Amino acid sequence: MRAILSVSLMLLVWGSWGIAYSQPQTQCVGIAVTDGVETNSLPAHLRTEHARFIGNLYHHAQLLFDHLGRFDAVRWSAVPDGRAFAYEGTGSVDFVVHLIVRKHHKIYRNEVRHYLPSDRVPLSGAEKPYEILSRPVIVGRLEVRLVEQERNKTIWSAMRDSTAIVPHSQNEFIYNPSKHPGWTHPAMIQGFLADIVHLQALNRSVERILNVSDRWFISRPRDDLATARGMLAGLITSVSAELDANLPLEGRIKAMLPEAEGRKRVVLDIGARDGLTVRLRLDVWRPLPAQQKVGQIEIVGVDSTTSIAWIRKIEKKFRKRGEGPEPGDRVISRKRSASFRSNSS
């Protein structure tokens, strides 16, 4: 039996049936985005562009599903319903991927710079052997929910946080006016202090951070925008593998194999890279227009992109007609194996 499986799998590896990511798109996912950011706390240039950043989340999610190659993805909406959400959109979907932006702000983070004995302390009269520096950063938090639309039930969720220092020049900064009055060039005060004071006024954590520091570094609006844009795209990417692992797996029966030990066997166009493992069971469905369940198969051999399964069950109406699974039928596993989900995340 093992010898037959080994030969069969070797032939499949060298075959020309395509890779696992060319799977049929037979299920549909709705993408919903909720903006939970208080935009009044953002600098003017980030506040102006924030709606565009949120809109880009749809695009990044669409690219994710294009890469997975197993689902059609459409734009849907999440409507607040008490403490929960109701989902709506055009057409029907099997799942909703709900993206909730919890944070997307510019703040400051402090770091301590210790002086070496050879360093000259730049602040007149300073006795301490260190200086506290405030650097501009963008912080983000994204919550992702996978909702089974028919039951409006969340079947998986995750929260992702990220922090990115905004590129800035080491030569552009404002000395803390309350600690070091008169040390900053008036042009720097005029050009950049207003945005920093605005952040202080609307965010108490920023106020505390800046009050104890000696120097506040300056970032240019274009660098703030690029960092904020890249952060949201990165947060989507960070959940892609885990989201994929919690979505149904689907493939096709590619061919029938000779019986072995009295068992009928089939070849599938998906394999280990998709999460298939030995003993995993998948339902077999006849594609449209029939859309009927044919039976169930169980995996007995796997390589990276293909697998072999034996037919463990055939539905009664197909047995009566002397029929069963055949090439072209869909095979669906509603949940991946636990080991694949762990490895993916």
Give your account of this protein's structure.
The protein is α+β, with helices and mostly antiparallel strands and 345 residues long. It folds into 2 domains: 27-117 and 127-167 and 220-245, Double Stranded RNA Binding Domain (2-Layer Sandwich), CATH 3.30.160; 248-335, Rod shape-determining protein MreC, domain 1 (Thrombin, subunit H), CATH 2.40.10. The chain has helices at residues 2-13, 44-68, 186-202, 204-212, 221-246, 316-320, 338-344, and strands spanning 27-35, 71-75, 77-81, 84-88, 95-114, 130-148, 153-165, 173-175, 215-217, 249-260, 263-268, 281-286, 292-302, 307-314, 330-333. The strands form 3 sheets. Strands 1, 2, 5, 6, 7, 8 and 9 form a 7-stranded mixed beta sheet that branches. Strands 10-11-14-13-12-15 form a 6-stranded antiparallel beta barrel. A two-stranded antiparallel sheet has the order 3-4. Helix 5 (221-246) runs antiparallel to helix 7. The protein starts with a helix and ends with a helix. Mean pLDDT is 86; it is low at 1-25.
